[in-house]
Each structure stands twice: as structure tokens, then as C-alpha cells.
Amino acid sequence: MKYKFKNVHKTLFIKERYQILSERNDNSLNNFSLNNWRSTMSIISENTFEEMLKLNNYNKKIFSNTVNYDYTEEQIRLYSEYAENSEWYKFAEGSFEIFRKHPQRINFKKDFSRILEPFIINLLKLINNYLENKEYEWVDKNGNIFSSLVFYLEDLIYPWIVKPLVLEINSLREKGLLEGESEQQRYKYFITLFDKEENILNFYNKYPVLLRQISESCLRFYTYFIEILSNLENDFSVLEEELGLRGKLNDIKFGKGDTHSQGKTVLILFFDDAKIVYKPKNLIINNSLNTIAEYIRKVDEKIRIRIPRTIAYSDHSYEEFIDYLPLEQKKKLPEYYYNFGVLLAFIYLFNGCDIHFENLISYGDMPVIIDFETMLQQPLFDDKTGQSLLDTLFHRVTRTLLLPTEGVKREDGLDVEISALTGSFKKDAFNGQVLINLNTDKVKFDIGKIDFEGGKNLPIRDGDIEFDKYIKDFKKGFRDFYLIFEELNKTEEFKMLLKANLYGLKTRVLFRDTNSYASVLSFLYHPDFYEEMLDREKALENLWSNKFSNQGIVASECEQMRLLDIPIFYTDTNINEIYDDFGNHFISLHQFSGYDYFMKYLPNNNLENLEKQLDIIEIYFPSFDQRKKDIN
Question: How many whole angstroms separate alpha carbon 220 and alpha carbon 116?
Fold first, then answer.
């Protein structure tokens, strides 16, 4: 039996509709459709809209028909045929066919996740079939890999399904269609509705965009999972030799962070006798920075910077796993904060940024950074603001995010510290949407307090640190490294070392705060955006209101967010160019390449600048407010 999903003509992206309609010769201007598109929920100007059309090579007449909500019968037929021939549709179709023939329960953590069973069952079947046809002797098929995979996918997809399901249960309650005497009994009845495939189908027929979203995400995950296994097979002997890998792969912990590059994320590979980190990116920069750090340590052995051992390939890398190892004795804290000061100087001098609490792990008396992709940065070029001002603001230790922001007045209303120096757990830290009336038919979202979980970046487990005791150690570490670096920078040997290791590295480029992307994606999880893809396209089109000098970057942002990824961009430090994972290249928004900018401002790291940065550290150190009160 072949399943025929309803409303799939509404699941196509604009570019797909445009491709279909452009092949026809009857595309006259649809003024009503175009005017409706421009006047509804749009915040971009007419000039920006015209620029968007031009950059995407859209003819306005054809475009006006692609954004038509009042579908013609011909459009419904053409769009439906396109959808039904797509890989995601075939996966969804196969998922329900398997579910009908072999219904089974999956041990999900949340009740609502039962709506995902057809897709997860199909995905597990695909992976199992792949493994059966491969002789991967290093894979323990009886380990925890499959259960970890299920839990990861549940965590990934649950935020997408929870709001429409909350809407559905409340709608059925208000119509009196839930059976049971109590709120709890009616909730349980609602959950049992999804034991029947007919009810699951009806749900996805109502929300066809969600059907596509889940199906495509499962397919992307499958592709990524197979890529990981294939890379491991090719690299295994090197990993045995370089990282001491032994035994079989028995578990995988998928990252809880953002996905990039078509659903890829960081993960931890568990073998019988070792754990290693897999990252779907080129991390040669780790080895380059480690070479420089080791050179400096030979000058002064008290300068210690630990960078995870890394095996780097062109599109993926492996790192040693750095476990959280808090200090057992507080008497070691002076040494820890001395090393933190050294690390701050290292990151500052090599133009690093975005080293927040999630990017640093405390390992004994060593703070260890686990993500160096945002080194060799520079401010975006802005001829209106004035580049000299932007350069001045950039060359402050605060841009590293290793220091907290409590030294200045907070305007965002969030009582949360995300710096790598602090970032401890905080109860009821901020307001946000939370589920209330759990396990009842009155479950709903409301504004409530949310805890800030913190990270593994504090040197003692309870996080109760009297920071003012260690500011001298912190500043001494910063000063010692800075002075050694300044002295070495006078030698040709060191300059040659810098060029040999910093020229031509792949680094990440940040245009917007990750939270701004995450907010847009969270907005798209509302049920209103699951019935019609055009509504989602409209929300993404509004990204064009935040103009860059190269708007092709916005087009790439939209393309990546259509896949529910956080957009990511790269540059090589020897070129002044930006690129993404789709193969698009853009004229840079910077004046220089990363390496040239680093070398241009290297002479400015003098003694005068050292004292300026030490003053800034004094202001932004966690205990500044208390010390200020003591003085007054």
C-alpha cells in the first residue's frame, strides 16, 4: 500500500516552485499575489526586495506566481508531483509502510515523541541494513549506539513537534473529544490516539511542512552517520597510533549544540578503552596553535597552554577528549588563575573571540579551550562608523568572552553570565516559554523562570569562588605571556614561525550572534509555520532587512536556515574572501585577510597596550564591584 499524503503541494520552497513555473510559458504578472506578499508580514523595503529578486535571479512575473496562496489546479498538480518524487517524500512514505507492517514501541523519554515512531523505525532500519553490509570489525553492534541515536533524534526533533501537539490536545479538549474523568486521564487518552497510524497520518496531513522537515532531517542524519563511519574506517589505523584508540565503538553521544552544514554536529565516540571527539570540520588550526604554544613554553616553562591533541583532515577532525576535572583543593586556585591569565593573553594576541563558557573545560589547574575556530578574527569593515573606532573596540580583551560582563551595566535584563571565567549554574536565571500543567489535557506554554545550567568551566565543582583573591595571579599570567610574546616578536625566527603556522588556515567568520539565528529558528517551530511553506519563506525573507555590503551572505543564511541549521561561514587566513558549505564564495566584509590583519596590528602589542588591557581586566574581573565598594 502506497501512502498518499495530503497538502504536499504546500511543502515546496520558493526556489522549487520558481523552477517548476519557469519552465512554463504562461507566467503573466499576478499583481494580487505580489501585492499580498509584499504587504503581509514584510519588513523589507522595496529596494531590498528588488535586490533580493536580482541576487536570486528571480523574474518578478514568475515570482509573483510562486507566492500565490490561491493555488490553481495546475499548480497543485505540478507541486504535488514534484514533492511525491522527492527523497523526503519517499522516506516518509516508506516510514508509514514499515510502521503499518511492523508497528513497534520505541522507548522515548517523552510521551509526545510517539508521533515520531514511523520515522525513527525506518531510520534505524536503514542504518542497520547499512551495518549488516559492512564489515566494520571495530563497531560493537550490541552496544548503546542505537539507543543513543534514538535519544539524540528525540532531543533534536521534540522542539519541533511539541507546540503543534499542545495545540491539538487543547483543541480536542475544548471540543469535548477527549475521553476520561480527570485531566490526567484525558491526557493519557490523547497519547493513545497515536497508537493508530490513521491519527498520525491525519496529524502530518494537517502539518505537511513538519512532515517534510522531520523526513529531511532523518535523511540528513543518515547521510552524516554513514559519513562518520566511513571516515572512521579510513582513519582507524592513524587514530590507533596517534590517539591510542583501542577496542570497539560501543556508544556515540551526539552534541546537544547547534547543527551546521546540513545537520552535522559534534559528537563523542566511546570505545572500550578510550573516548575521542569527532568534529565535522577542518581543525588544522589546533595543531598550528599548539606548535606556537610549545615554542613559547620552551622560552619559559611556567607558560602552559593545553590544546587538545588533534588529527585533522580536510573536512573532519578528531580530538582527544578533555574531561571535566575540578580541583579537589582550593590551594591550587592561584595556579589555575595564573594559567587562565596566560590563556587570555594567548587568545587576545591571536585575535580570538567567542570563547564562552561552553568552549572551555577546567582540567585540574588548567583551563582548556576546546574550540579554536574563531581565532585570527577582525572587525567587519564599516566606512560609516569609521574603521579606526571599530579597530579600537576590537583590540580589547573583552572581545574574547573569557572575561565576564558584570563590570558594566547590563541592558538585556538577563541575570546570566556566559563568559568562560564565570558561567556558573543559576536558578531562575531568565524568563522564557515553559510547559505548565504537565501530563494533563490543559498542558500549555506560559512565561516562566528558566534555570541557567552553566558549564564545565569552573575549577571547583560548587562554583563558590572568591575571585578577588586571585586577580593578582590572573593579571600576572596575562602579563608574563604578553611580555614573552612581545620579546619574541622582535625576532625573525618567531615571525617566520607565525607565518608558517598561521598563513592559510581555515577559520570561522561570525556575522551575527548565534542567539539571533536560534531565535528565528525557534520562531519557525510555531504551528502556523507547519501548514504552508510560504509562511516560513516569508519569515526568512525578512532576514534581508539586516543589510550587509554583500547581500549574497543573507541569501546563504536563508538557505542554511531552511535546513534548520545555524548558518556558518568560513575564510582562509591568506585570502580576503568568505565561503559557505554550499560552495558559494563572497567578497569579504573585511578590509584584510585574517593573517594580514594580525600582522598589521602586531606592532601595537606594546607595553602601553599591555597596561591598558590590564586596566580593562581590573574592571571586568568578577570582583570589581566589591573592590570598588571597598575603596569607597
Answer: 16
Q: Give me the residues paired with residue 180 across strands.
A: none
> What is residue 91's predicted lDDT score, i.e. its pLDDT?
97
Rounded Cα distance, 430 and 515, in Å = 15
pTM above 0.85, yes or no: yes
What are phi and psi for residue 389, nearest 5 degrees? -65, -45
Report pLDDT digits (tens) over 26-67: 779 999 999 999 999 889 999 999 999 999 999 999 999 999
pLDDT digits (tens, 9 = 90+) for 103-147: 778 999 999 999 999 999 999 999 999 999 998 999 998 899 999
DSSP bridge pairs for 452: 426
Please give the distance of CA 19 from its chain centroid, rounded to a whole number: 30
pLDDT at 22 over 90: yes
Average the pLDDT over 492-506 and give the result. 97
The number of helix segments (H) and strand segments (E) in the chain equals 22, 13
Cβ-based neighbour number of residue 261 at 10 Å: 20
Look at residues 304, 314, 311 and name the one whose alpha carbon lies nearest to residue 244.
Answer: 311
What are the C-alpha distances in Å from 160 to residues 101, 116, 127, 442, 534? 27, 11, 23, 19, 18
Could you tell me how far CA 213 lies from the centroid of its own chain? 17
If residue 558 lies in a helix (H) or strand (E), which one and from where to where? helix 552-562
| 282-309 pLDDT per residue, tens | 999 999 999 999 999 999 999 999 999 9
| Dihedral angle computed from the Cα positions of residues 194, 197, 200 and 205, in that order, rounded to the nearest 10 degrees | -160
Beta strand residue intervals within 563-627, DSSP E: 569-572, 577-579, 585-587
The answer on pLDDT for 219 being more than 90 is: yes
Contacts of 164 (CB under 8 A, 6+ apart): 203, 207, 210, 527, 530
According to the model, what pLDDT value does residue 168 have?
A: 97
- d(CA 428, CA 419) in angstroms, rounded, equals 18
> In terms of Cα–Cα distance, which of 215, 86, 79 is closest to 160?
215
> Which candidate, 454, 358, 359, 340, places its Cα nearest to that of 397?
340
φ, ψ dihedrals at 488, nearest 5°? -65, -35
**Distance between CA atoms of residues 516 and 514, nearest Å:** 5
Question: What whole-number distance in Å separates Cα of residue 139 and Cα of residue 250?
Answer: 7
The alpha-helical segments, DSSP class H, found in 7-144 are: 14-22, 31-39, 46-55, 60-66, 73-84, 87-101, 117-132
